[in-house]
Each structure stands twice: as structure tokens, then as C-alpha cells.
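Example S7 (C-alpha cells).
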């Protein structure tokens, strides 16, 4: 893969050319991948409006992940005006199409009542669907629901397991939340050195709260 360097030497410009060829040939997934490169500025000049158009093309072609990515741009107002109802419709379409991350994002809308009537029980079900689909962020959000007794009975042991799953899946804030549980001995044995290591991992993953936690335990990031 030229984009990631898996199996071949990394070449983002080559990836752009191949995704463009795939998209022009009617491959919806290729359009979505090309849109991601335009959104992030990898191999091409960053152009969020172009990403919007490519994600829309991908979504219309049946690529569920493209629908989810387009929903995120509508949610954040990047390359397009913010639109909560459009965001909700796109995340639902992504989730219904089997995109686990789209399910997690849809769950967040139900949890917060943004673009949808607030329904924490529905949010829990969607976070579980996302987590079961290997979406680390969904696992972290589900862990938070168990830790805070939102839509489910409080279960700190379950929260710890979910935060661990999120952290191991690369979700930095999941590492922070797990560190908080370990530091306080909630649902797991208290272990400040382990908590510090988790805060450090969160910090290195770009989570500012992780950096603060690491510093609070007498360490410096």
C-alpha cells in the first residue's frame, strides 16, 4: 500500500494517483480514500471542500465509511457549513452500512442530544455496536457510560476493561481514563506507577489531560 508503506515503499503521491484512477473508474471506496488525502493534505495540497465532494461521491456509491467521514465534516464545519441534521443522517447511514466508527459517532449524538433527541440508552447500544466492530473510540465511550452510570448500571470493572480495550486500540483518551481508574483503585488494584505510565501513553498520543495527569504524579512529559 503506497499510502501506508505496507508491502511497498511509502509514496503518497503514487497513492493519490491510484485512488484517483479508482475513483474515476467508479470505485466508491477509492473516492473515499482520495477524499481522506485531500482532507489531511497527504500527497496533495489540503483542500477540505474537495474532500467533501469526494466523500459525498463515495457515500452515494455505497461506501459507508465515506458517509461517516462526510458526516464528520458537516459536524465540524470543515469544508462545508455545520448542519446537525445532515450530520445525524450521514452517521446513521454510515452505521447502517456497517461502519463501526459511524455507529460510535451516532451514539455521541444521542448521548449529547445534538441533532437527535437525547437518548442515553440508545447511545449505550450504539457505543457497544461500535466497540464490537473494533472501534476503539466507541469502546472508550462505552467505558465512560459504565463508569458514570449513564444509561446502564455503574460497573467499574467493566469500565476498566473497556478503557483498556480503547487504550490498546490507540485511543489516547482511553489510556487517560484507564489511568484515572488505576490511580484511584476504581474497578482495579490501585497502582500509581502504572497510572503514570498510562498518563504518559495518553500524553504521547496527543491527549492533553494525559499530560496533566503525568505531571500531577510528579513526572514531566
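Recovered sequence:
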Amino acid at each position: 500500500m503506497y499510502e501506508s508503506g505496507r508491502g511497498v515503499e511509502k509514496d503518497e503521491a503514487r497513492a493519490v494517483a491510484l485512488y484517483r484512477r479508482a475513483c474515476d473508474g467508479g470505485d466508491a471506496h477509492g473516492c473515499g480514500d482520495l477524499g481522506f488525502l485531500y482532507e489531511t493534505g497527504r500527497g496533495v495540497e489540503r483542500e477540505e471542500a474537495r474532500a467533501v465532494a469526494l466523500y459525498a461521491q463515495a457515500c452515494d456509491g455505497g461506501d459507508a465509511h465515506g458517509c461517516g467521514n462526510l458526516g464528520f465534516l458537516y459536524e465540524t464545519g470543515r469544508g462545508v457549513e455545520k448542519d446537525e441534521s445532515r450530520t445525524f443522517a450521514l452517521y446513521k447511514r454510515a452505521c447502517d452500512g456497517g461502519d463501526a466508527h459511524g455507529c460510535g459517532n451516532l451514539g455521541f449524538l444521542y448521548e449529547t442530544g445534538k441533532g437527535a433527541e437525547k437518548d442515553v440508552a440508545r447511545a449505550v447500544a450504539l457505543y457497544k455496536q461500535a466497540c464490537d466492530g473494533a472501534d476503539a473510540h466507541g469502546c472508550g465511550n462505552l467505558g465512560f457510560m459504565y463508569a458514570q452510570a449513564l444509561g446502564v448500571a455503574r460497573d467499574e470493572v467493566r469500565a476498566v476493561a473497556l478503557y483498556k480495550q480503547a487504550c490498546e486500540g490507540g485511543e489516547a483518551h482511553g489510556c487517560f481514563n484507564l489511568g484515572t481508574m488505576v490511580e484511584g483503585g476504581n474497578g482495579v488494584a490501585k497502582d500509581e506507577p502504572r497510572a503514570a505510565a498510562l498518563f504518559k501513553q495518553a500524553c504521547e498520543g496527543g491527549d492533553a489531560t494525559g499530560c496533566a495527569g503525568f505531571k500531577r504524579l510528579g513526572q514531566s512529559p
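Notes on this example. Residues 1-9 have pLDDT under 50 and may be disordered.
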